[in-house]
Each structure stands twice: as C-alpha cells, then as structure tokens.
Amino acid sequence: MTETQVAGRQVSLEQLGRLRALTQQVQEICRTRLRAYLDGLAPLFRPRRLLGNHMEGAGKESILNADQNLNELQDIFFKACGRPFDLRKDLPVPLASVPARIEFHEWEYTYLVQTEQERKEINITSPLTWVLTYPGAYPYSMVRQVLAGRRERDIEGLRSFVLQACLIYHMFLRLPELTTLLEGLRYHVAIRKSREMGELPLVTVSAPVDTVRPGDNLLSIAETYTGLSGFVEVIDPQQAAHIHDPLQEQIGKLLNQNPSPILQ
Predict the structure, then answer these.
(1) Are residues 51 and 64 in contact, defined by beta-carbon separation less than 8 angstroms?
(2) Domain that residue 150 falls in
(3) Per-residue H/E/C for the chain
(4) How many domains, in total, are found in the chain?
(5) Residue ranges for the chain with pLDDT beneath 50
C-alpha cells in the first residue's frame, strides 16, 4: 500500500479512508452546532442594523451613520464588481431586503498538484471552514463553477451573490461583536479572498478542529483511486484531541501569574 504524509505522519490510502470517515462525523457535529448558533444570532445579522431606511423593510428604521455605512458598502461593492465578475457598478437604493437567516457553504479552492508523473489543478474542499452568505440563487460552489465556465452565467444571480457577500463583510467590519460572539463559541472568523473571485471579500467561519491537505503524491493517488475530481481535507486527530480554548488559556495564564495560597 502506498504511503505518504498527512500532518507530518506517514499514512496509507486505507488510513486516509478512515480519516475521511472520521472527518465526516466531526463535520456533522460542528455543522449542527454552527447552524444552531447562527439561527440564534439571526436578528443580529439584519442589514437594516447598519443601513436603516436604505434597506427595504417594514416600517421606518433610522440608524445613526446609515448614510456613511451605505457609502462604505458602495465602495466595497464597486471594487468587487470588477474582474472576474464584470458587473455594472450601480447600487439602486433602497436595497432589496434579504432574509436574516445566514447560510454557510464549505470553503473550496483550487490547488496545483505537482508530482514526477503529472502537473494538474484539482479542487480542494475544507470541510470545517464555511463561507457565510445570505440566502440567494447562487451558493458559493456554484459561483465558482460559473466563473470557471462550467455553468451558465446569470448576471443577476452573480450580482446578488456579490452584493450579499459585501453585505456580510460590511456587517462584520462595522459590528465587531459578531466576531467576538462566534469566537467565544470557539468558531474562528476570517476574511478571505478567493483567487477565482478577485477583490470580493468573503467571511469564513472555521470550527476549532483543523483540517489538512496531504502531500501531492497522495493527493494524486487518492484522486485516481476514488475517481473523484477533487479532494476533501481531513482532520488531524492529534490536534482535534487538544482543541484550543482561548478563555481557558487566558484564565489559566492569570492563575499561573497569581497563584492562590489556597491552591498551594
């Protein structure tokens, strides 16, 4: 059985299969928790909290700095409208309302595999990192396919995806408490840019368990062995067994610096 490294350790294809099954179970746990957290926090993601009457909605909602927030959103959106989306740069106001329920989709990226036998790009999925979006016609993975020319291009669908991604980004930019809440629940928030999506800022949330991509040789073999056009990262069991807890570490550091006589 061919062996190569995952997270610095030698593994076989059989062991990789078991890691994948374990990763799927961990993913289900983390997805279920994240879904519950985002549903509970849904009212905090209403765009009218920043844009007020510049966003469609029932009744009037005057928000301090709403005009400034709209101008900032326009700047973000217009910058993202360039290549590869090539969208028109206009933003009619009031903006169409969007449901506050946040959706999330697995982070994907293209990776160049280079071995002695071949050199090719494959799609990699990070199963414990998700892109946050508002509900829309195009999920993240479908947008990637459209931009790659594998699906029909719907201008309005792309425009909606880009605008809503900018809305999410602007929410996290102007309301840092959203990041604090999710980080307190052990989910890491990051702003990323995809090579395929130009200047569009994407908000991602990652579970407290890391996933890893094996070496190029195993990637090539695994893709050939499974017949799938891509690879899903797997967890590192050693890291998963020692999940980082910032609050626990902060309190532990404080206790170490100020030992109590009662505990001695």
Answers:
(1) no
(2) 3-263
(3) CCEEEECCEEEEHHHHHHHHHHHHHHHHHHHHHHHHHHHHCHHHHCCHHHHHHHECCCCCCCCCCHHHHHHHHHHHHHHHCCCCCCCCCCCCCCECCCCCCCEEEEEEEEEEEECCCCEEEEEEEEEEEEEEECCCCCCHHHHHHHHCCCCCCCHHHHHHHHHHHHHHHHHHHHCCHHHHHHHHCCCEEEEECCHHHCCCCEEEEECCCCEECCCHHHHHHHHHHHCCCCEECEECHHHHCCCCCHHHHHHHHHHHHCCCHHHC
(4) 1
(5) 1-3
pTM over 0.85: yes
SS3 per-residue string spanning 191-234: EECCHHHCCCCEEEEECCCCEECCCHHHHHHHHHHHCCCCEECE
Question: What is residue 70's predicted lDDT score, i.e. its pLDDT?
Answer: 96
pLDDT digits (tens, 9 = 90+) for 230-250: 889 999 888 888 887 877 888
